[in-house]
Design goal:
By secondary structure, the chain is of the alpha/beta class. The chain is 47% helix and 11% strand. The protein is built from 18 helices and 12 strands. Helix 4 packs across helix 7 and helix 16 packs antiparallel against helix 17. It is elongated and about 120 Å long. It starts with a strand and ends in a 6-residue tail after the last helix.
């Protein structure tokens, strides 16, 4: 029989044991249900099952509870008796265990810092993150194009800010090449970058950037590493949270090779609070998510969306989610009843019960499930008791987290930020050179002016009635011609041409590489 992950089962009123087939796990999935109905525990037992099968996992810990994966559950836990009873009901030999965990954090507080470069993020996701208008998104695209042409690496926020200053100062020239580049749009983008920086988003951008190989690791005993992104603080910036996870999915899609239909996934990616990805999202972004969901499974990656209601996920994306665990939904209003009916319609009917009623009736720790069979077709919906977790239910202590972080091999690689030469430093160097050229031009002009003054003084002295010989008069005539030329040059430098020369030197500030 194909290897699988045990999800749960039941007795007389519940389904036979429900198994998530590993060779169908990259067909993606959905975990849905109202707050407090058990979605987090379902996520936890799936992460345990994938890790035990040698599959690395990446998940976001929105409430801080999932850190318990790093610690074994214990018989003295207050819910142990209830867990044991449920395990007996569904035929599970409950064994407590801990799992290999790596903690990550965009802010570097509860995990190793996780970063991406501005260039890797790209103009589309960056525009989404900054909530830019179409005109402002156009300016961002121009800035990225200029960075490529000018050889200006975009690594962190100060690189992008410096580049935007350059774009603003050269807006007229760029408008002729790429279309209108308005100074007002540049200013609006700079303000949004300032807001992002004040929210702590600047820590996302920089180096060392996250290497995908570091979230695709397995331990020596063959178990997959569970990568946990601390997201409790990150949820205060929901747009940053959603954009980062979408960037990570996009990077996996772009970099991983095709593997066809593997016996088990290379990585399983859990996207909690999935509605944040789609709220007010432009069509281009939704299309991007649909493309990733449709094609990334051929790269061996399974994506599981966790949300309160299936309606939070666009229909084109929802249709890609083959494995589903639906916890209870409440129907207090007409809108709730409509949403409940729509959720029930996404499952294959079971003649033994009404799906919409079952979704309302299941309690905490129960769900209606529909998993893919060996042929890849969805099974009929079943009522299921979800198995209890083997790891600790609830968070570990801060001291335990710090001990894990200190022992992690990722600490030496990511805990210290790097500041390589990039767009900011290159443009700063150009500015310094241009300033030096302007200063040299000013000194040259002052030198010429001083020589002119000396010449005029000498003429006044020599013209005071002294008699010169014929030969000296001829020589003096020669000097007079050269001096007249010098005088003309000085006057010209003081005039329009001189000012153009200085401007030309200053204009070298941002021209060329």
């Amino acid at each position: 029989m194909t290897e699988s992950i045990f999800i749960g089962g039941g007795g007389v009123d519940y389904a036979e044991p429900q198994q998530l087939l590993l060779d169908k796990a990259n067909r993606h999935g959905l975990i849905a249900g109202a707050t407090g109905t058990g979605k987090t525990v379902t996520l936890q037992i799936l992460a345990e099952g994938f890790s035990a099968a040698g599959v690395p996992v990446f998940l976001s810990d929105v409430k801080g509870d999932l850190s318990g994966l790093a610690k074994s559950g214990t018989p003295d836990f207050k819910l142990h008796e209830a867990f044991s009873k449920r395990a007996d009901t569904i035929g599970l030999d409950l064994v407590y265990d801990q799992y290999p965990v790596t903690f990550w954090d965009l802010f570097g507080e509860q995990g190793h810092p996780v970063r991406a470069t501005v260039a890797e993020m790209g103009p589309l996701l960056l525009s989404r993150l900054l909530e830019l208008s179409d005109a402002q998104e156009g300016v961002i695209n121009v800035a990225f194009r200029v960075a490529d042409e000018e050889g200006l690496p975009l690594l962190d926020l100060k690189d992008l800010q410096a580049l935007l200053v350059w774009v603003g100062q050269n807006a007229d020239d760029l408008s002729l090449r790429y279309g209108n580049v308005a100074a007002s749009s540049v200013g609006a983008i700079q303000r949004q970058l300032l807001v992002l920086e004040n929210q702590g988003g600047a820590s996302l951008f920089g180096e060392p950037a996250l290497a995908l190989s570091d979230i695709l690791r397995t331990e020596k005993d063959g178990r997959g590493v569970i990568n946990i992104l601390a997201a409790d603080k990150l949820m205060n910036s929901p747009r940053l949270y959603a954009t980062f996870l979408l960037w990570l999915l996009s990077e996996l899609f772009e970099e991983l090779p095709e593997v066809g239909n593997p016996d088990k996934p290379k990585l399983v990616f859990f996207f909690d609070e999935a509605h944040l990805l789609f709220d007010d999202a432009p069509k281009a972004l939704v299309d991007k998510v649909e493309q990733v969901a449709r094609l990334i499974r051929s790269k061996g990656v399974g994506v599981y969306f966790i949300t309160q209601n299936p309606n939070d996920v666009p229909e084109d994306v929802l249709s890609q989610l083959g494995n589903r665990v639906q916890h209870a939904l409440r129907a207090f209003t007409a809108k709730d009843r409509t949403a409940l009916k729509q959720a029930a319609q996404t499952y294959r009917d079971n003649p033994a019960f009404d799906t919409s009623e079952a979704i309302q009736e299941v309690g905490t720790g129960e769900a209606v499930t529909s998993l893919l069979d060996e042929k890849g077709s969805p099974c009929i919906v079943e009522r299921t008791l979800i198995r209890p977790p083997s790891s600790q239910l609830g968070p570990i202590t801060d001291a335990e987290r710090q001990a894990i972080l200190s022992a992690s091999q990722m600490a030496a690689k990511y805990d210290v930020a790097l500041d390589k030469e990039s767009a900011f430093e290159i443009l700063q160097d150009r500015a310094a050179k241009a300033a030096k050229e302007a200063e040299d031009a000013e000194v040259a002009e002052e030198t010429l002016a001083e020589k002119e003054r000396e010449y005029k003084t000498a003429r006044r002295y020599n013209g005071g009635g002294l008699k010169r010989s014929t030969s000296r008069g001829k020589k003096s005539t020669g000097h007079g011609f050269k001096d007249a030329i010098a005088s003309a040059v000085v006057k010209e430098l003081k005039g329009t041409t001189g000012r153009r020369l200085v401007r030309g030197l200053l204009g070298g500030l941002f021209r060329g590489r």
